[in-house]
Design goal:
This protein has helices at 4-17, 23-38, 48-63, 67-73, 79-91, 112-117. The chain is mainly alpha-helical. It has one domain. The mean pLDDT is 91.
């Protein structure tokens, strides 16, 4: 699809033009897309809500109880931030969308802290 040099060049351009999120946030969203698509039985377009479900699952798998803290450190504080990242990647040719897709699909989908806290067992 894309070689890593092209992705790096595009991400560097995005960071120069829009400093809201760290580069790790963009890399995470791209990786979360692959992760989410691999969960499907067949390759197809996914909605914003479906993507957020995959993002949540992927974040909890990678970062456990620190997921919200890690994402917050990258500038992601609420679900709409994922939409902003997705649509920036779309505008720069690294992701696609349909006519029905919009940033609003990512707005207030879940309570960020509650969703990413998950249920973890701590041993004393």
């Amino acid at each position: 699809m894309f070689n890593s040099l092209k992705i790096k060049l595009v991400l560097n351009k995005i960071l120069r033009e829009d400093g809201r999120y760290r580069i790790e946030a963009y890399g995470f969203v791209l990786a979360a897309l692959s992760y989410t698509l691999n969960l499907l039985d067949e390759k197809r377009h996914i909605s914003g809500r479906e993507f957020l479900s995959g993002i949540s699952r992927y974040a909890k798998e990678l970062f456990g109880p620190l997921a919200a803290d890690v994402l917050r450190n990258w500038g992601i504080k609420e679900t709409v931030d994922f939409g902003n990242i997705v649509f920036t990647l779309v505008e720069n040719g690294l992701m696609g969308k349909t006519e029905q897709d919009s940033v609003e699909d990512f707005t207030d989908v879940f309570d960020f802290d509650e969703e990413l806290a998950g249920k973890y067992l701590y041993l004393d």
